[in-house]
Structure formats: structure tokens, C-alpha cells
Amino acid sequence: FRLALIQLHVSAVKSENLQRACGLVREASAKGAKVVALPECFNSPYGTQYFKEYAEKIPGESTQKLSEVAKECSIYLVGGRSIPEEDGGKLYNTCVVFGPDGAMLAKHRKVHLFDINVPGKIQFKESETLSPGNSFSMFDTPYCKVGLGICYDIRFAEMAQVYGQKGCQLLIYPGAFNLTTGPAHWELLQRGRAVDNQVYIAAVSPARDEKASYVAWGHSTVVNPWGEVIAKAGAEETVIYTDIDLKKLAEIRQQIPILSQKRCDLYGIETKK
């Protein structure tokens, strides 16, 4: 099946972001994409100072638009981190997924908050305004089961392992790595998660805006289970496409059967929820 990643240029105007995103979703559908993913923070600038201002409840205005365009195009739509979600007085970094009938299939709240300090380069603390999610998020398609993470979640190998153990063959990470962590780790982490779990990894970023307070790395990427980059964007707004070949995935797992060779008598991943 064909996967499309929309690397969107994000402005400060929510309505413009949403309109442009829906237009690119329609374009991707017209080119045969069955699963379409939007980037983290596609509907608002990325920064702790923006989260409260742009927050919405789910369902709400933005998710309603995503539901409508998913149904119109008869696709599976991964809504990036469409908006900061407000719920019970707390804010979450939330990704929603809609099916071809417009129904919400999954709602992933970012599990690992981006609190880092690289002296002289970048300091960021999502926990100043956001609360963490507390669950894994998966959804089924006629093609395969898909697992969800958001940006910083990709650094935690255990999360991807759980998804692999639960039968996911594609993991999608809307993300917004920056100009410090992006060139160092963006592709490296994707290739690592793909090879470790013999799954496809898709990571979709906003386009780069040098004038923004937080500058995204861009370079939305798809990696196959062999660790090969099979699609990659530059820094500008674009849509990239790739065909997810589940036969190839099955062949790789047969050739190097690491999933059946794990020493569960010596180690294992324990899930709490």
C-alpha cells in the first residue's frame, strides 16, 4: 500500500495551516496514498508559549476537519500532533487517527516529554506546560497494524519493541527534531528502530522555517525493515510517497529471524498498562 508523508510549512495562523494540510491530504489521496500522515505540530507553532493559546478539545474544530477529509478521500489519516489537546485542565501533545469512514481510530498522547538541555545549543522543557500520555496507541488497517509515537517517543527503544511484539509492521512518528538533534539523530534513530524490530518506520516533520522560534529539521523519512532509507524529503514543504511492501518485511523476518530467537528466559519487556 502507498504511504504519504506531508511535510507541511506551519504558520502562526491555525486556519491557514488546517486548510493547506487538508489540500495536501487530497493531493496525496489523488496520487494513490491509502495512509497519509501529517507532522507534529502541523496546526500551531511549536513552543511552550504557544500550547495553551492553540489548544482545543478533542473532538473539536481541527479534528472535525481531519475526520471530514479522511472520509472524503477514503483514507487512513494520521493527524500528526494536530493540536495541543486540552482535557480536564491539562494539556497534552496529541496525535489523532481517522479511518476512511471518518471515525476516530486512535488518540495518542505523547508518552515521553521533550525536556532537554544541550549547553550552548538548545534547551527545551515541554513539561512546563504539557502532561504525558500513559498508553500505547495502535490502529488496524486492511494492510497491517500500525503503532504510533510522537517525536521524542522514538528515542525509547522499549516502546517500539512493545509495538513489534503486539504485531505492528509500521510505526509512524510525527516529529519535529531541531537543528541540533536532527542532523545527529533523526535518521539514526529511525534506522535503529526499523532494524531492531524489523518494521517500517515513518517519521514526518514540519518543513523548516528559519524565522520560527523553534526551527524544525525537516527531512521526513521512511525506513524499511532492512534499515534502508527508501524515501526522504529535504527541508522544504513537500509530500513524499513510498510503497510499503509487507512481502519484503516477511522475507526479512524469515531470513534473519530475530523475533523468534529472543532469549525470553533471560530478558523481556514488561508493559504496565
UniProtKB/TrEMBL annotation:
Gene Ontology terms: cellular component: mitochondrion
GO function terms (MF aspect): omega-amidase activity
Catalytic reaction annotation: 2-oxosuccinamate + H2O = oxaloacetate + NH4(+); 2-oxoglutaramate + H2O = 2-oxoglutarate + NH4(+)
GO BP terms: asparagine metabolic process; glutamine metabolic process; oxaloacetate metabolic process
Group of enzyme by EC: hydrolase
Tree of life domain: Eukaryota
Classification via PROSITE patterns: CN_HYDROLASE
EC number: 3.5.1.3
Alphabetized UniProt keyword annotations: Hydrolase
Chain ranges of the CN hydrolase domain: 1-246
One Pfam family matching this protein: CN_hydrolase
The family this protein is said to belong to: Belongs to the carbon-nitrogen hydrolase superfamily. NIT1/NIT2 family.
Protein name: omega-amidase
Species for this entry: Eolophus roseicapilla (Galah cockatoo)
Lineage: Eukaryota, Metazoa, Chordata, Craniata, Vertebrata
Record gene name: Nit2
